[in-house]
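Reopening this one. Same input as before:
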Amino acid sequence: MTRIVATGPVAPPAEELLGEIVVAGEDQLRALLPEVEVLIVRGGTVITAEMIEAAGRLRVIGRSGVGFSEVDVDAATRRGIPVVITPQSGAQAVAEGALALLLALAKRLPELHRVVREGRWSARDDVELRDLHGSTIGIVGLGRIGLRLARLLEPFEPRLLAYDPYAGESDHAKLVDLRALFARSDFVSLRAPLTPETKGLVNAELLAEAKPGLVLVNLARGGLVRSLDELLAALESGRLGGVGLDVFEPEPPDPAHPLFRHPRVVCTPHALWRTPRALEGVFREVAEGVLAALRGERPAAVANPGLYS
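Same output, byte for byte:
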């Protein structure tokens, strides 16, 4: 019997396709590593080279998402272990989440909610609202989710800019360099993967060149932002007009950080992708990829495609 271990809860389609799955915390996982054949990585659990080497029977790693920075892919590749990812199923939910944050910040919904809740009706005149319609919106990372967000934004008739050094010309957005995107955009959504090149991509130096009042949302990886301190400083200076975060580095973040008390900040706990449809699709996709790998076939999407070249 193939021993399958997940580092967090899984949706029913995974067990329907794969059979029994043991859910293990980090301490329990280390004890199980010598027997594990399939490892499904959930949440922020980090799978190191040491752990991969300790799992002598490991045949495939599945990652319930498109990001794979939590897995030492080089170590898996050295062992000939495919790292299955799921780029398709959660894309729509994440793109809708990005749009939700952009609208919440443009319309300053948290502040207006407090105006009503606190009985300060006349204070509504002091809250300046903005439109997505006709604005300039930048997307950092024009992959599957970035393109879906671009399509969702089309009814707002924005000027769409994009930064992606690996993308070809697009019908959806004009490709520009990163500094130009921040200097010209009213709103920016981060959609890039976390790599050594993109870690700390958004920093004080880049924000200093941003268009005053820029609204920034991040639903990609927390590590794309160098520090919450720099975001807060940019908000207080007026260089940023709003910040929406669904991802953090580390996770969970320290809730005592003053950024979370700023009136123009909206945060969610890495949850905007977690719709029932997306969860079912992600776990079906990862299970199908795992089964393909166990059969010796190439899964639909892997983080180390060189194994199959």
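So the earlier flakiness isn't reproducible anymore. For the record, The first strand starts at residue 4 and ends at 6.
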